[in-house]
Design brief:
It is built from 19 helices and no strands. The chain is mainly α and about 400 residues long. It has a single domain (about 1-175, about 190-390), classed as Growth Hormone, Chain: A. It starts with a helix and ends with a helix.
């Protein structure tokens, strides 16, 4: 419910900002304003997660997120009633606070899921978790554009708030969880450094995170979808909603397949699917047909979700419970916020060298990184999660 709500909200917010500014960079700035606090405070968020009840952290964050959405509704109503206002600054401020909450949400959410699931079900639960998340994104992306087109921003933002309240109630219903014992005399700085050192010393975790970071940072094109929808494919806000949903349709189909056939055997080699994702982004940039573009985006989502499930399973298998928050915080810096920083990179590159050339160049960089990882990270290349599973 939270994913569904925030996806609808982001679709409307993205479209409004571009209509106000008609500037590629403005879309990138939305991501940057969210990424700065999410990255800057992620390590502290991991420290807090490992020393507190993660369920309680999520309850607080969900309540604050609902208040932010209420503020966004108020801003939108004010803009509708005040002619001539075109500044996007209030939207950037909201995204900054959303990023602030994400710095604490991500390091608590993933470890909480791991606490609720038995170890032998990690791979299967990762696939189901990915399925539900992507269903929320698919429905949210499509509904966001359709609701904006037919009902307007006020009704859409109001619906988002109702969904967030439902999500808040569900989080409250989760029983309180145990808190890991604190090492006597360990400072916050020592605790954070321990988490960072663990990630960088584990070639499987570090390599999987690094691959996704480069792919999303340079190889993605989703931040520029409003421009593709408006100026290249000419499909308006409704078409934009479907384009936003297309990658996640492919992701859902792949995730459902992986609930029965998890990518455990030769998992390291299967991470080369990141290259398939990047090839799809290049093909999307060259397409001028709406339906072909949707199909390409759907295929990119399928490739992307294989790496998502493999990475999350790797982190679950190789991370001790008392360090899951700090490791998840590093993952937030590597992966979660790479979407927002990637959005800024996409907007900046599009402004400097043009929309289509920027996507093609980014895709080439991402493909090259996959080849390099297979050469220089042998432990990741040879990783077989099926053997790890049998060793339980």
């Amino acid at each position: 419910m939270m994913t569904l709500a925030l996806q609808i909200q982001f679709v409307v917010l993205n479209w409004q900002v571009y209509q106000f500014t008609h500037d590629y960079l403005s879309l990138g700035l939305l991501g940057l304003f969210e990424a700065i606090p999410a990255v800057g405070l992620a390590l502290f968020g991991g420290f807090v997660s490992d020393r507190n009840d993660r369920r309680k952290i999520l309850v607080i964050i969900m309540g604050l997120q609902t208040l932010l959405s209420l503020a966004l509704l108020g801003i939108s109503i004010y803009y509708e009633r005040s002619a001539g206002i075109s500044t996007a600054i209030p939207f950037y401020v909201i995204m900054f606070f959303v990023g602030l909450l994400r710095a604490f949400y991500s390091p608590a959410q993933f470890p909480l899921m791991t606490q609720l699931v038995p170890r032998e079900a990690y791979a299967n639960s990762s696939a189901w978790n990915s399925t539900f998340w992507h269903i929320g994104v698919v429905v949210g992306s499509a509904c966001g554009g359709l609701m904006l087109g037919y009902l307007g921003a006020t009704v859409t933002y109001s619906t988002v708030i109702v969904m967030l309240v439902i999500a808040f109630i569900q989080i409250v219903r989760i029983p309180p969880q145990k808190v890991n014992p604190v090492k006597v005399g360990e400072s916050m700085g020592q605790s954070i450094r321990q988490g960072i050192n663990f990630v960088f010393s584990n070639q499987m975790i570090f390599g999987a995170m690094l691959l996704d970071l480069i792919a999303v940072l340079f190889g993605g094109a989703t931040a520029m979808l409003p421009v593709f929808a408006s100026e290249i494919l000419h499909v308006g806000e409704k078409g934009f909603g479907f384009l936003r949903a297309a990658p996640f349709i492919g992701s859902v189909l792949m995730a459902l397949y992986m609930t029965k056939h998890p990518p455990m055997k030769s998992a390291g080699k299967k991470l080369t699917c990141v290259a398939g994702f990047s090839v799809c982004m290049i093909a999307f940039a060259l397409s001028s047909n709406f339906y072909l573009s949707m199909a390409i985006l759907a295929l990119s989502g399928a490739f992307d979700n294989v790496s998502v499930v493999i990475r999350s399973t790797i982190v679950q298998y190789f991370t001790p419970d008392d360090m899951r928050g700090r490791v998840s915080s590093v993952s937030t810096m590597f992966i979660s916020s790479s979407n927002e920083i990637g959005a800024f990179e996409s907007g900046s590159a599009a402004k400097l060298i043009g929309l289509v050339p920027s996507v093609i160049a980014g895709g080439i960089i991402a493909i090259t990184s996959v080849g390099a990882s297979m050469v220089f990270l042998p432990k990741l290349r040879e990783l077989d999660l099926d053997k790890e599973h049998r060793a339980l």
